[in-house]
Amino acid sequence: MSNWNERTLLLIGEENYKKLEKAHVLVVGLGGVGAYAAEMICRAGVGEMTIVDADVISPSNRNRQLPALESTHGLLKSDVMQSRLLDINPKIKLNVIAKYIKDEETDILLDSAKFDFVVDCIDTLAPKVNLIKKTLDRKIPLVSSMGAGAKTDPTKIEIKDISKSHHCPLAHMLRKRLGKLGIKKGFQVVFSSELARPEAVILVENEQNKKSTVGTISYMPPLFGCHCASVVIRGLLGEIEIRKED
User: Fold this and answer.
1) Where do the THIF-type NAD/FAD binding fold domain residues begin and end (predicted)?
2) How far apart are CA 129 and CA 242, in angstroms?
3) Which of 165, 171, 188, 189 has the most Cβ atoms closer than 10 angstroms to its Cβ?
4) What are the backbone angles phi and psi of residue 158, rounded to the nearest 5°?
């Protein structure tokens, strides 16, 4: 236990490591992107995390989602990730919320603690917009994941301000919604400039919170999650400037 983090210390030094130990990071959404983001943040040595997801694991999650195994079907993603993160770092302070965050629940969540960073991995537009807006209102640093589906080229993944995102349908819809709220820039997003494959998207009916199902490949959502984690860690260490622009 005394040296599980020795490689991280070797890279960033003890002073920077202490910055991570003192940080509290919120990750909302523990699917294909969010679970990997949460694990990478945990493995980096962040001292406190709050993880949020109300979904249970289904067989279709297994092609890309970290907590999804044949043995975990039907379990809450948040419960599986709680066990996993505590097994990585038993000393981490971990807060687990198995709720679908929307409307006033977003305010309650964001006011429940002093967060140093928020990671948005929600894949439904309305609650995503709500979380982003209210996080920016509180001037909490934020990174948001755009769509990892219908794409296969990892070299096209980028990290930029939301205003500079392109060739991503989710980012396009998000910019339109946020623009109506007066938000046009001011937070980092992870997106892919690769053109989405139209044949990989099908419409669905009578499925809660979803209007479509998008084909995905195993490695793209995890890479998005790793990119999100990199923004958090580098932001906490002061290696990149993360702030809400006026």
Assistant:
1) 7-240
2) 19
3) 189
4) -135, 160
